[in-house]
Request: fold
Amino acid sequence: MNSIATLMTCFNRKDKTLKSLESLFRQYAGTDVYLVDDGCTDGTGAAVKQQFPQVNVIQGTGNLFWNRGMHLAWKTAAAGHDYDFYFWLNDDTILFPDAIEELLACSESEHHKSIICGATQATDNPDEITYGGWRPENTILKPNGQKQSCDYINGNILLVPRYVYSKIGTNDPVFHHTMGDFDYGVRARKQGIQSIVAPKVLGVCDEHATMDAWCNPEVPLFKRLKLLYTPLGNHPIQHFILEKRHYGVWTSCFHFATIHLRAIFPSLWKNKV
Reply:
């Protein structure tokens, strides 16, 4: 059996976290799970330990959010064992019964040298693909029974073989909440490593509501700018780092300016769009 470290981060979604873990263990009981509890106040960590005592619950600082929580989980897992695979799983994602099998089969067809991305669908609409692999034209790929290469990845369901980890390492903790998964896929591509969308939809995860108060004209300006720089906003500095790293100084500077303009003049921006 392949050794798999499952990496997760949770914050106050106890019921969803437990259901996600249940869907995982039902099909692959042998995985080692590393779950970062980033300051939950709803008893998620304790509930997980009670129902799934085999899970390694790691206490976060309360300020890690998703990407830095995943980084901590990954560092902890890699420090204790040399795993065949590292499996990213969002704690609000429910896996279909054959998800792990499909991921491993897809990875084997790539000689375990590619990132394998699993698409998710909405709860109430199987035709709506919510997360997975993306193409540059901002198009999310719908599984069609065949493997498809993609340029950008979401980290909701993601299998990273040991070979990829040995070349790329972990996700970068410079990103607080978002962008870490996109960055990882682009870093891999620059090293000649493909990201592949599995042939079938592998789970259910409803699209997360975006925090767009930073560009809402009804919110006072000072508050908009403050929200812009929160981990759940559209953090300009972290966007700058991402774009400078992958697309050059001009693009990063241009978008650094336009993000602020959108926050300062949201009505004009909305009218222009």
Q: What stands out?
A: The two ends are 52 Å apart (CA to CA). The mean pLDDT is 94. The chain has ten helices and 13 strands. Residues 4-204 form a domain with the Spore Coat Polysaccharide Biosynthesis Protein SpsA; Chain A fold (CATH 3.90.550.60).
